[in-house]
Amino acid sequence: MRTKDDILELLREKGAEMARAAQRGVILQPGAIGDCILTLPLAQFMKDCLGLGGIDILGHTEYTGILPGRTCVDGIRSIDSVDSHRLFVETKTFDLMDDDPLINVFADYAWIVTFLGEPDSDFEQNLIYTANCSHSAEVITMSVKLPKKFSAHITDFYAHQFIDQGALSLRPRRIRPDDVLIRANEADVNRGKELLREVDLDFSERPVVIHPGSGGPKKCWHVDNFLAVAKELGSKGIEVIFLLGPAELERFSDATIKKISEVARCLTDLSLTEVLGFLSCADGFVGNDSGITHLAAALGVRTLAVFGPTDPVVYRPIGPAVTVLTSSTAAFAKKPSAGLQQELLEVLTA
Asked: Which of 111, 134, 165 corresponds to the end of one domain?
């Protein structure tokens, strides 16, 4: 039979649990889609180890809009709506009004993690001051500069920083490389099916999607490699669709775009939500070290990622069906590589 003290202890524990569940965290992530996806394990880690009731992302909504309802992220806020440049001024000149909008931005959060600014900077000090104007809050500033000879995944680096700066008695959790970070919903799949019909394909003809772009030209495998792969897949009766975004349409010449369209069907200028839905209907994906490659992997799509100058140990896409192929040659982005093409095809058609 429980004593009065036992009951009081249970009530205290329940009260502490409810208090933790009422707390929220926010991550300031100003990066593009790949950066946002690589932030998801940290967001999940924060929710799990702190028992938070929710995690929001303060970032560019064109990249973060896909996250709520499909990931561990509960809400998003637009970084463009926040006067964050004020936080970069010298601390001695930084000032806030009693009803300052900056205070309201961070008033709901017990934990604040920022990829803006640097540790021990004016930005960090100003953010700490701002957050604590309304309540007690923990502020952790992530360094994006890797230590020398770092040989783990970038998400492990984030988790270590969070534990160290938060002075938490936690064991660092290594990334699970086979996690499905993003789960497409029914509406996503239906939109993907609609896009397949628009290019005269039935849902049963699940295509291999090729995205030949990336944010950095040096990370882009020469486009002739992707064309050769597409031709070989087509000769085996495998449907191939090229996915071209604004960056590729701007970077590629009209002649290159014509060559691509002669080899396979193309989809262009899709929204990120449409890309997500389309990838959820794909049988496989081939791409560079890019945000869309990270998206495909995170959805659980069979993903072949071709890495050139970036280190796949650190930046490997996270997903249950990811194969990384690498080339350290200076010609990675400058001319075709028949050997790497063959290696990719062997994996893709195995």
From this structure: 165
* Domain interval for residue 335: 186-348
- Do 23 and 161 lie in one domain? The reply is yes
Same domain for 144 and 251, yes or no, is no
Together in a domain, 270 and 312: yes
Burial 279-290 (b: 16+ CB within 10 A, else e): bbbbebbbbbbb
Total Cβ atoms within 10 A of residue 338? 9
Last residue of a domain, one of 165, 196, 229: 165
Q: Are residues 202 and 74 part of one domain? A: no
Query: Do residues 56 and 40 touch, judged by C-beta distance below 8 A?
Result: no
What is the token pair recorded at 78? 């637009």
Q: Say whether pTM exceeds 0.85.
A: yes
* Same domain? 115 vs 144: yes
Tens digit of pLDDT per residue, the chain (350 long)? Answer: 556 555 555 555 544 444 444 699 999 999 999 999 999 999 999 999 899 999 999 999 999 999 999 999 999 999 999 999 999 999 999 999 988 999 999 999 999 999 999 999 999 999 999 999 988 999 999 998 898 888 899 999 999 999 988 888 777 666 677 889 999 999 999 999 999 999 998 878 889 999 999 988 999 999 999 999 999 999 999 999 999 999 999 999 999 999 999 999 999 989 999 999 999 999 999 999 999 999 999 999 999 999 999 999 999 999 999 999 999 788 899 999 999 999 999 999 98
